[in-house]
Amino acid sequence: MEILWVLMALVMLGFVLLQISRRRRGAVGLVEPGHPDAADPANYGFAREEELDIRMPGPDEDLLDVLDLVQRTQDYRGAQQLLAGTEAKGERRWQRVQAFAGAASLELRQRPGGVGETPGGQWLRVWRAEVPKDAGGAAVHAEFLVQQAWRTSTPGSDDFRIIMEEAKAACGEAALLAPGDPVPYIVELSVARGLGYPREEFEQLWLKILDRAPNHMGAHLAALQYWCEKWHGSRELAYSFAEAAAARAPRGSLLAAMPLFAVFEHLPEVNLVSGFYQSEVVTKAVHGALHAVHSADRDDPMQAHVRHLLVFFLVRGERWAEAMNQLMVIDRHVGALPWTLSSDPAAEFAVYRALAVAGYEANGGSPATLPH
Predict the structure, then answer these.
(1) What is the DSSP string of 272-310?
(2) Which sign does the torsion angle of CA 234, 238, 240, 241 carry?
C-alpha cells in the first residue's frame, strides 16, 4: 500500500511539473543585466534604481524643499508655514503631516541622543514648545507619537500602549485646536487599530471624519486597516467597507479604487488557485481602480497610491501594456504600497518594473509603441 501511495505521489508531481513547464515556455523571466535578452528600463526614460525616491508616493516639490530646509537648519518654521497654507480637508495636508512626522521619527532613530548630544527631531519639540497652540504642530506631534509606537514597540506590549495612549491624548489636543480639520481624527484611526477600540467607539470616530471630509481617500485607507482580518475585522467586513465606499464615491473620486486595496490586504500567502490574478474578484477590483485614476483629477495626490498598487496587480496578471502605462506616470517616486512593505522598496519596485518592460517587449512592444 505504501508503494502505491508513493507511485501516486510521483505521478501527481510529474503532472504539476509538466504544467509548470508548459506555462513557463511563454512566460517572462528575469535575466542578469547585460544579458542579450535583458530588457532595459532606461530605454523608456525610467530612473535608475539608485535614483528612486522612497520617501513619497509621488512628487511634492514644496514638501521636499521644506523638509530639506527644516532638517538642514533644524528650524521648524518652514514646516509650520507650509502646513498653514495647505488646505485643511485635502489629501495633501494629511500626506505632509505624515512626512514631517516621519522625518522627525527617522532623525530620532538615527540620533537618539546621549550625554552632551542633541537628539534628532529636536525641531519638532521646539515647535510644540514655542507655539503650543499651532494646529499643524499639534497634528505632526500626534502622528510622530503614532509612528514611534509602531516603529519602536511591539503591539500589545506595555511600552506600545503607553505611547499610543499619549498619542490619543495628542490627537484630542490637535482636534481642539482645529475643530474642522479631519487630520487629528485620521491620525487617531491608527491609534484605534493599535489599542483595539471596540467597534462602537471606532465607528463614532469614523463618523467624525465623515462629517468633516466624507470623500477623504487617505482616511478610508487608514480605516480599512481596522476592518481587515489581521486586525479587528474580517475579509468580509473589509470588502464590505471598501465596496460601500466605492459605491458612494462621487464622480472623479479615487474611492472607486478601494476594493483593490481590500483585495491586496487579504492576498493568500500561498496562491493555490490557477490564474488568481486573472480571477473575477481581482479583475473587477482592477477595473474599478483603472476607472478611478482615469476619471480623477490629475493633481490628486492620492493618484500615485492607486497607480503603484495597480502596477503590482497588472504585472501579476501579465497585463504588460497597462502596467507600462502606469509606470510612465509614477516612476521615480516609490514610497507607497506595496513597495514600502519591503526592506528595500526601490529594489522591489525595480523588479516589477523590469518584469513589465520584459513582458511588454516580449509581446511586441517597444519605446516607440508606448503612448507618452
Answers:
(1) -STTGGGSHHHHHHHHHHHHHHHHS-TT-TTHHHHHHHH
(2) positive
Each residue of 4-35: pLDDT tens digit? 444 444 434 443 333 333 333 334 455 554 44
Residue 117: strand pairing partners:
114
How far apart CA 185 and CA 222 sit, in angstroms, is: 11
Residues ≥6 apart with Cβ < 8 Å to 173: 138, 142
What are the start-end ranges of the H helices in the chain? Answer: 2-25, 61-73, 77-84, 91-110, 122-130, 135-152, 158-177, 183-195, 199-212, 217-227, 235-247, 258-265, 280-295, 303-316, 320-330, 345-362
Across-strand partners of 53? 333
Task: Give the separation between CA 134 and CA 258, rounded to whole angstroms.
Answer: 33
218 SS3 class: helix
Provide the sign of the torsion angle of the four alpha carbons 16, 361, 353, 298, taken in this order: negative
* Spatial CA neighbour of 246 closest among 228, 236, 260: 260
Q: Is 101 exposed, middle or buried (0-12, 13-18, 19+ CB in 10 A)?
A: buried
Contact 299/268 with Cβ under 8 angstroms?
no
CA angle 255, 256, 261 (to 5 degrees): 80
* CB-count burial class (<10 Å; 0-12, 13-18, 19+) for 238: buried
CB atoms within 10 A of CB 65: 12
Dihedral-angle region of residue 196 (phi above 0 means left; psi in -120 to 50 means alpha; beta otherwise): left
Per-residue pLDDT reduced to its tens digit, 164-186: 999 999 999 999 999 999 999 99
CA distance linking residue 286 with residue 261, whole number of Å? 10
Contact (CB, 8 A) for 288 and 255: no
Q: Which 3 state secondary structure label does DSSP give 53?
A: strand
CB atoms within 10 A of CB 88: 18
The single-letter DSSP state of residue 43 is G
